[in-house]
């Protein structure tokens, strides 16, 4: 990737599709990781969501283990583990095991948001709301456990260690879509990933400015390191890309109304009778999206990097047909010369 002044990585969200078994989305993630490793991408991250008919990846640490055992070079990570649901010590143990499976290749991306509705968060952990307030403290504990360091003086768990021990340590990231995550990442000297695709870019500049201007150097990271996660899709032609984008746009239309549905077949949606208002909203989604040929998507990404100065772009792509998703990542890799 020497020819590219920033890294390119992937986020997989295990998206369910109409007429297909949900387990297929999990198996597709493993196959995509193996394929995109050969294309030259730097990382492959998987997400955590709960009680969601669209995004069915609910246990990233398990999916990471499968991916790590079937790849050899690409970094494998969570984007992210929703920390308020879990005891930090258990997360440390899980990621120490992952680090043993793939030494030097594991990323622990952490989020504070529930990744679900309030009732589901309660089902996962009755103290989730309280734990959200302890997010910075939990991160500090995690750093020490992962690095096999004693916890701070006076901590009730100071003598507790996370195993298996090893010579390498997972790389921690803070994920977010607001200034809060940027603040936490800067305070602890950790890499920060902003969910650009959550907000259509709103809040990006403020969060990155806050992160870069308040960053405190850490032992592992002497300077700030930031990434943006963007939604993108490439095809051989702009028309084909627009066609494959149809299911994602249809999802957005319903998500904004609080309805979460599996991806529809683009052939079906091409015949759908949308209202005039909905057609206008779909056009807005299309105009804002990073879609087109590989060169088109590269131009959009390059402009975003030039504007923000980030060190890495993480690409998330949804497509009803898995072949179209693989093709999209291949075209973007070719546009950047990753696999050359």
* Fourth CATH level, the homologous superfamily: Luciferase-like domain
Number of DSSP E strands:
9
Count, helices? 14
Summed up, the domain count is 1
Briefly summarize what is shown.
By secondary structure, the chain is of the alpha/beta class. 46% of the residues lie in helices and 15% in strands.
Task: Outline the structure in words.
The protein has 340 residues and is α/β, with parallel strands linked by helices. It has a single domain, classed as Luciferase-like domain (TIM Barrel, Alpha-Beta Barrel), CATH 3.20.20.30. The protein is built from 14 helices and nine strands. The protein is globular, with a radius of gyration of 20 Å. The mean pLDDT is 95.
List the helices and strands and how they pair.
Elements: E1 7-12, H1 23-39, E2 43-46, H2 60-69, E3 75-82, H3 88-101, E4 106-111, H4 118-124, H5 128-133, H6 135-146, E5 171-176, H7 179-188, E6 192-194, H8 196-199, H9 204-214, E7 226-234, H10 238-255, H11 266-269, H12 276-288, E8 290-292, H13 294-308, E9 312-316, H14 322-336
Parallel strand pairs: 1-2, 1-9, 2-3, 3-4, 4-5, 5-6, 6-7, 7-8, 7-9
Helix pairs in contact: 1-14, 2-3, 3-6, 7-9, 10-12, 13-14
Which key features would you list for this structure?
alpha/beta, TIM Barrel, 8-stranded parallel beta barrel, 14 helices, 46% helix, 15% strand, globular
């Amino acid at each position: 990737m020497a020819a590219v002044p920033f890294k390119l990585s992937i986020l997989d969200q295990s998206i369910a599709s109409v007429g297909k078994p949900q387990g297929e989305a999990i198996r597709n993630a493993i196959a995509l990781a193996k394929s995109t490793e050969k294309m030259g991408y730097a990382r492959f991250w998987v997400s955590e969501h709960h009680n969601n008919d669209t995004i069915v990846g609910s246990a990233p640490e398990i999916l990471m283990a499968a991916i790590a055992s079937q790849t050899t070079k690409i970094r494998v990570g969570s984007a992210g583990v929703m920390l308020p649901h879990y005891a930090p010590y258990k997360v440390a143990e899980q990621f120490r095991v992952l680090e043993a499976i793939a030494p030097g290749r594991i990323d622990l991306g952490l989020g504070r948001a529930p990744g679900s509705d309030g009732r589901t968060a309660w089902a996962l952990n009755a103290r989730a709301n309280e734990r959200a307030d302890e997010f910075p403290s939990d991160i500090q504990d995690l750093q020490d456990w992962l690095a096999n360091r004693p916890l701070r003086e006076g901590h009730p768990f100071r003598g507790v260690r996370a195993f298996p021990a090893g010579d390498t340590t997972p790389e921690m990231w803070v994920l977010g879509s607001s200034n809060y995550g940027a603040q936490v990442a800067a305070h602890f000297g950790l890499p920060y990933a902003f969910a650009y695709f959550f907000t259509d870019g709103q809040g990006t500049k403020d969060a990155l400015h806050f992160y870069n201007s308040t960053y405190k150097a850490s032992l592992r990271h002497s300077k700030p390191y930031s990434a943006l996660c963007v939604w993108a899709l490439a095809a051989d032609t702009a028309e084909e890309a627009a066609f494959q984008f149809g299911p994602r746009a249809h999802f957005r239309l319903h998500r904004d109304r609080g309805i979460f549905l599996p991806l529809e077949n683009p052939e079906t949606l091409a015949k759908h009778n949308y209202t005039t208002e909905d057609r206008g909203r779909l056009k807005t989604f299309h105009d804002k999206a990073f879609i087109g040929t590989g060169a088109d998507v590269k131009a959009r990404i390059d402009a975003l990097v030039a504007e923000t100065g980030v060190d890495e772009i993480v690409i998330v792509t949804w497509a009803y047909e898995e072949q179209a998703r693989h093709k999209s990542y291949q075209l973007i890799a070719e546009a950047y010369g990753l696999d050359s």
